[in-house]
Every structure is written in C-alpha cells, then in structure tokens.
Amino acid sequence: MTADPAQPSASPPESSPETPVPAPSPTSAEAAAKSPREIELETELAQVKDKALRALAEAENTRRRVEADKIEAVRYAAADFAREIVTVADNLRRALASIGVEARAKDPALETLAVGVEMTERALLAAFERFGIKRIEALEKRFDPHLHEAMFEIEDKTKPSGTVVQELETGYVMHNRPLRPAKVAVSKGGPPPVPAQSPAGPVPTQAPGAAYGRPQGETGAKLDEQL
C-alpha cells in the first residue's frame, strides 16, 4: 500500500527551551577525595579570614574611641579654668549679699556700685551659659552624691530624710558633668524619702547617713575654713 498523499504526515515533536542544568554539588565522596594538603590550606584560609575580620573590627572600635576621646577633650578643655573662675561668681554674689537694701536706698553711690556689681555678675553668668556652665539647683532637692557634698545634717522632721535644706556654696556643672559639687546641709529625722521608681522596681531606701559615704550616727565633716 502507498500512503495517501492527502493525509498530512506526522509533524516532528515541538522542541522545548533548554533549562539550565544546576552544577552538581560536591558530594561527600568528593569532599573525602580532597587531599590532606587541600584541607589544611582551607583551614588556614578560614583562620586568616577570621583574624582579618577581627582586626578590622578592633581598628574600627579604636577609631571610635579615639574620636570620642577627642570630642570629650575639646568639650572639657577649659574645665580647669572654669573651676577657678566660678569663684569669681561666688565673690560677686557675696559682695551683693553684704550690701543691705536700706544701705543702698540711703547711699546713691553705694546703689550705683551695687548695680555695677549686679551687671558684672549677669555678664559673667551669661558667659557661663555660652560655654555650658550652669548652677546646680540644690535647695529642697533630694541629696545626690554626684552633685552635692554633704557638710552636716540638720534635724528636721517636716522634710523627708536626705533633703537639701541649706546651701553653703553654689555648685556648677559643665555640659552635664559636675564641675564643682554644691556644699549643702541635709535633713534627718523626717519620714523616709520616696524611692525612685525604675523599670526593675522600686529602689530600696538607705539609712540616714549611708548615702553620704559614712556610717549612720557619725558626725558630719567640719565646714570649710573659707565658710
């Protein structure tokens, strides 16, 4: 029999696009086929990479520490000078406190002098503000060993124990760092202070005198000779 010419012949199968064949992963047999020298070199390479990463991290940490120290050095470069100059503000305040209101009213020359001292004090305090130097507000505040220096205790049952009731010498901070602590008198014999709340829970209260760095019942330090 001959094929019918009217009948179409069978078309060849359509060709599908070739898909990439993934590269074969090394099998355990291939890994086991590595020579001891290759394994040793790979181990050494991994150790070298680890040491290089550690060295880079240490260098970056050192750079950051040096940068932070540089900023701190620039910010507090004038701390020693500022610590000396705040005594000028103390003397101006003492001079004004020594002039009574009645004496100023009776003597025009004295009034003019007092006004000049007040203007000088305001200019000095404005200069302090520009350089980040501020007075410590101590009165009626809870005793803070970072900002206050307790000179003695005063019996006062109307105020919580550890409250600053008298300021003997003004304290100053420079950029939130204590420049000179305020010399204060602290109350005792009153109700215990309200503990500060923290996320971990209330802070336990200390016995009177323990917060000042001395045992309870020990007498306070003597006043500075200048006072």
Can you describe what's shown?
- The protein is of the alpha+beta class and 227 residues long.
- The protein has three domains: 38-75; 79-131; 134-194 and 205-222, Nucleotide Exchange Factor Grpe, Chain A, domain 2.
- Helix content is 41%, strand content 15%.
- It is built from five helices and eight strands, in the order αααααββββββββ.
- It has helices at residues 28-32, 36-75, 79-97, 101-106, 108-130; strands at residues 133-135, 148-155, 164-169, 172-174, 177-180, 182-188, 197-198, 201-202.
- The strands form three sheets. It has a three-stranded antiparallel β-sheet with strand order 1-4-5. A three-stranded mixed β-sheet has the order 2-6-3, with no helix packed on it. It has a two-stranded antiparallel sheet with strand order 7-8.
- A hairpin with a 2-residue loop joins strand 7 (197-198) and strand 8.
- The longest helix has 40 residues, at 36-75.
- The radius of gyration is 40 Å and the shape is elongated.
- The model is unreliable at 1-6, 198-205, 207-211 and 213-227 (pLDDT under 50).
